Amino acid sequence: MVQKVKLRIVFLLALVLSIILSVFLILKSLEKDVVFFLSPTDIKNLEEIESKKIRVGGMVKKNSISINSEKINFIVTDFKNEINVSYSGSVPNLFSENKGVVAEGFLQDRNYLRAVKILAKHDENYMPPEVKEALGDK
Asked: Which residues contact 125 (CB under 8 A, 6 or more apart)?
């Protein structure tokens, strides 16, 4: 082969390898920021519980909100299954019973989520697509 062809092949191989390495490093660095969305039914069907942060979405069950001085406890339901949520901090103004909510936090078991963030900062008529899909378009 001619020297020019060899040089092009080496250049292309180096370019492909650097692109593959760059994509791998980017995906690896973003891995810790990925948060999965699950409904209460999805959580009940999990084979094993991991200690990764997740988002649980559904409706706040009627008469389930209990507030004490340090935390708020409520139940998120998708009308098939329920999960108890405990959260310390202030909740959004639109947080109330029979309204959609997404709680981000860590699963303690299949029935309990320790939330670190409540995501309900939307118009009261809006429902995130994930929640609407999990509720079966109710």
From this structure: none
